[in-house]
Amino acid sequence: MFTGIVAATGKMLSRHSYDGDLRIRFEVPPEMMAGCRIGDSISISGVCLTMLEADATGFSADLSIETLDKTSLGKRQPGDRVNLELAMRASDRLGGHMVSGHVDGLATLISRTKDGRSERFVFETDRGLARFIASKGSACLDGVSLTVNEVEDNRFSICIIPHTLEVTTLGSLHEGEVVNLEVDLIARYLDRLNQYGPPESNGV
User: Fold this and answer.
1) Is the separation of the CB atoms in 109 and 175 below 8 Å?
2) Which of 32, 53, 174, 198 has a CA 20 to 30 Å removed from the CA of 118?
3) Strand, helix or coil at 122?
4) What is the pLDDT of residue 203?
């Protein structure tokens, strides 16, 4: 489980294909790797991955066909920057919102414009995912917890402050590029419950 508060950025170093899957090596700041070990969970641009071959400089991770199909990581190339967040501890402050690292799909940046010192980003996503996005609700884009400003059909806007633009990869995002989207966890479960209606009485 994560909070969507990015701790640092890292870099993809290499990628190798194995029967349709990928093994990717990431470079991570040494201070972030301190105390990490093989098997730990880490969010890479919003995707929960398991650390393999972990050392002081970074780690490798295996990406399944499902992960490659649902996220943008399969399209990333060596040298590309990624957002990093270690799994939260029970004692951590929940500065963003509850994020699982299980990406629902992709969102495309339609436009970005100045909005005071911040910037307003407009994204478009699949209609099946847009139904989970609400004005003043939360969304996780490339591992960053953000507040949705406005929603219109399958587009939504988000104002991003200078600090977030500086310390995450969102600051270098260009129109037409895609980001990993995880919708609000509660909205996802409520939708599933609504499909089945109220529970049947057990006679109690």
Assistant:
1) yes
2) 32
3) strand
4) 54
